[in-house]
Amino acid sequence: MTMSLSADLWPDVQPEAARRLMLAGVESFARRGYHATTTRDIASGAGMSPAALYVHFPSKAALLFEISRNGHQQALALVREAAEEADSPVEGVRLIVERFVTWHARRHTVARVVQYELQALPEKEFEVVADLRRGIERIMRDLVVRGMESGDFTVADPGTAARAVLSLGIDVARWYSERARKAPAVLGEEYGELALRMLGAKVD
Amino acid sequence: MTMSLSADLWPDVQPEAARRLMLAGVESFARRGYHATTTRDIASGAGMSPAALYVHFPSKAALLFEISRNGHQQALALVREAAEEADSPVEGVRLIVERFVTWHARRHTVARVVQYELQALPEKEFEVVADLRRGIERIMRDLVVRGMESGDFTVADPGTAARAVLSLGIDVARWYSERARKAPAVLGEEYGELALRMLGAKVD
């Protein structure tokens, strides 16, 4: 179960032992926070010795960075693909929000670490992740601006509106759990509508 | 400086030493997380001995509970007052979002602890706080339903919409900092408009 989940979460990470450590890291960080988690906790969560952990990650910070960088790369990739697939700003915002919300609901434990443990990253690593975040924000902001130019959106401040649209998705990671009444994709569709309304699109 | 800020944050808490400990707790929890903070860290942040901390709070959990309960009571009070002041669902949602967002921006460090350290509360204390949260959600949901009945709002699912409106405000605590370009009250006004649009209100 753990092995297949880790492969599902991080298909590009090799070997399997590294993925298992990342999964154990996510679980510990989400439960107790980054600072209160020891490398021993993580290693034992992955059924490994602390020495075996260091074969794959030189430090706890390196493990957090790998989780965070991977999560942000996945989010950026899905946002970029949705923007490229869409043939209008309205369609672009709808697709991005649907997939971004679905991802944050389905991957809520990973997403919680990715979104809320940023300040624990060392400065250089933080900058790498901040750059990925700016990429996501830029795509959304550009779409909002293009939609204003085409007359599809009416927005007072495209920066504020783009941030608010992404906020809706990010906050899903905070409250979503397996006990939520809604399936991730259903929630994504509803939020897609809500986001377009925020931007003043005529969708009704 | 510390003393006046603590009085400003918790006007109802007495004595001043308890407020100072709550402020030191907020700063430590926000920086390192609840689990990695010791009572010694908090006491020394407040310029007190660990023994002096126990005069006011029997445990670190009791201190977190007091911070969380107080923050949620403040949020519930401002939401309730806004709902009572307003003479329509449109006005109610606008006022709540304006004040809720302004509070989360202005009090972003406290709000971050209040919103993101819930799972660290012991079960009984969690239930007290969860009850206050349900109070906030109920007021927003009732307003959305009333607005649907009066024809002011058109919403597919009032529960989802009410949650999304509150999400916008909560997520402000995650990203807002003193370096943000917008003053809290200005952001509050912009978000008030965005929230009403989400609900399908005619505000333009």
TrEMBL record, chains A, B:
Entry superkingdom: Bacteria
Keyword Phosphoprotein: no
Molecular function in Gene Ontology: DNA-binding transcription factor activity; transcription cis-regulatory region binding
Coiled-coil region list: none
Listed Pfam families: TetR_C_24, TetR_N
Statement: the UniProt record of this protein carries the keyword DNA-binding: yes
All copies of domain HTH tetR-type, residue ranges: 15-75
Record key words, sorted: DNA-binding
InterPro entries in UniProt: Homeodomain-like_sf, HTH-type_TetR-like_transc_reg, HTH_TetR, KstR2_TetR_C, Tet_transcr_reg_TetR-rel_C_sf
DNA-binding span(s): 38-57
Protein name in the entry: AcrR family transcriptional regulator
Organism (species): Saccharomonospora amisosensis
